[in-house]
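fyi for ur records
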Amino acid sequence: MGAVVDLDRLLDQRQVWRGRQGQARPAGLQPTGHAMLDQRLPDGGWPAAALSELLLASPGCGELQLLWPTLSRLTTEGGRVVLVAPPFIPYAPAWQAAGVDLRWLVQVDAGQTDALWAAEQCLRSGSCAAVLCWPERADDRALRRLQVAAETGQALAFACRPQQAAHNPSPAALRIAVDTRPAQWRVLKCRGGMPPAMPIACPGRG
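which gave:
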């Protein structure tokens, strides 16, 4: 019976992939707000308390359109969302139009050398629902620290990085490439299953 107990423990901790079984989605589900994307992801949304990487064709190419439904939901529920060193000044009317409650949106200004540290501290604090950062350079060790910090603080971590980073391994639970030509999302890696083969057209963008 010991082997059975151990297997059950591993399954409970999601360390072993069972394959798709049509079971109820796990507690703590974090839907992306995009039905087609949620259908393609093993957890039915963002991996909870984990790091997700968005690999961009260029900064500002569509990462906010991907994230706004989630950030709207979180802030509407009273969850704090932190932007660490965004590449552009956030345009408040656009965020409001996307449904984000600005009372729960915080921007942290930091240089590139301090941005990853700041993001890690916010994630570890336990007071944030989600943290977004745009590191120009981040090695495996830095990303692993963000992953651990997300688990510790039970928060969603999003690292927006250049698409060239896709050539390097990453500890992130989910990696999505955001393309512009055509406008689409490609799931490159997802914890708990195989990435879907077909890309997903960005809603309202061609």
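Strands lie at 51-56, 81-84, 105-108, 130-133, 156-162, 174-180, 183-190, 200-201. thats all i got for now
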